[in-house]
Specification:
Layout lengths: L1 E6 L4 H12 L4 E3 L4 H14 L5 E3 L7 H13 L3 E7 L14 H23 L8 E6 L12 H20 L4 E7 L7 H9 L1 H7 L3 H13 L4 E3 L2 H11 L3 H13 L9
Parallel strand pairs: 1-2, 1-4, 2-3, 4-5, 5-6, 6-7
The protein binds NADP nicotinamide-adenine-dinucleotide phosphate (NAP).
Length: about 260
């Protein structure tokens, strides 16, 4: 029996992936930082799906030993994986001069290093029979450099490029997709942020359940990169017609007056 490994399982989008796959009776290995939250998620899922195989293991994605411990645990339990859904991400959004070292390290490691490391561990334990799936959650912010959201957009771009290249290396053995969602009202600070973007924020925002369903379909079809939602696709297309300098100035205006500093230290 092969498992789907989900990072960020206790979060907004990760929770949506988890519930959707649990409903499909897919064996799950779930991770996040808090053993307590993972345990209560497992209890909740088992109350609805009593026979569903669910493993939980806490992991701090910033820490290489913690990452290795998760896979050692899987090995001890004889768990093999057929799908990785890397959802975890840290979306600190502020002027870069306000960052300290902790924020830099956390955002870079969780958004990029952790994903690459997990993919490496995962590949060593996956059948690579052509049906193996790797789904990484990027962000539509990575379609251009984003002043005042600079590190986040850069880490998500790095993730997108890494997965696009890896896809070719794994051709015929694994499907690799990077999904790029726009705004999803998963936390209060993100809801405020979406509201601050007025009509466009309201039009382009999507519920995490819808994004999760589209993302799973995209990796099943082995899409290279999927921007989710009509307005986000339109923004991507429209911005490709505009000179980069104008796009960057526009992005600066969009982000300059908002701030998100939720990184769960
Ligand atoms: N919401 C949006 O508008 C939006 C838009 C585009 C892309 N995204 C991307 O979608 C993904 C999910 O975001 P969300 O909106 O669902 O936010 P969220 O609820 O805050 O989820 C983020 C998840 O990342 C995990 N995480 C953070 N630091 C971690 C660490 N050091 N080690 C292990 N896990 C860590 C958290 O797990 P624990 O707290 O349980 O440890 C949490 O479950 C992220 O990659 C985000 O960049 C979100």
């Amino acid at each position: 029996m092969d498992y789907t490994l989900i990072t960020g399982a206790c979060g907004g989008l990760g929770g949506a992936f988890t519930r959707l796959l649990a409903k499909q009776n897919v064996p799950l290995m779930l991770t996040g930082r808090s053993g307590e939250r993972l345990s209560s998620l497992r209890t909740d899922l088992l109350s609805q799906y009593p026979d569903l195989p669910i493993e939980i293991f806490p992991c701090d994605l910033r820490d290489e030993d913690s990452r290795a411990a998760l896979f050692s645990h899987a090995d001890e339990k004889g768990i093999r994986f057929c799908r990785l859904v890397y959802v975890a991400g840290v979306d600190t959004q502020m002027a870069f001069e306000k960052y300290d070292e902790g924020r830099i390290i956390t955002q870079s490691r969780v958004n990029f290093e952790g994903a690459v490391s997990f993919i490496g561990h995962f590949l060593a334990r996956a059948p690579l029979d052509g049906n193996t799936e790797i789904l990484c959650v990027g962000s539509v912010t990575s379609i251009m450099p984003e002043p005042y959201f600079a590190l986040y957009a850069a880490t998500k771009k790095a993730l997108e490029y890494f997965t696009m290249a890896l896809r070719t290396e794994l051709k015929g053995r694994a499907k690799v997709t990077c999904v790029l969602p726009g705004g999803m009202p998963t936390r209060d600070d993100i809801k405020e942020n979406i509201e601050a973007h007025g009509g466009y924020g309201a039009l382009s925002a999507m519920q995490p359940e819808e994004v999760a369903a589209k993302a799973l379909k995209a990796v099943k079809k082995n899409k290279r990169r999927t921007i989710v939602g009509f307005w986000n696709k339109l923004t991507n297309f429209g911005s490709s017609l505009i000179p980069m300098s104008l796009r960057i100035s526009f992005a600066a205006k969009v982000w300059k007056n908002t701030q998100k500093d939720f990184y769960g230290e």
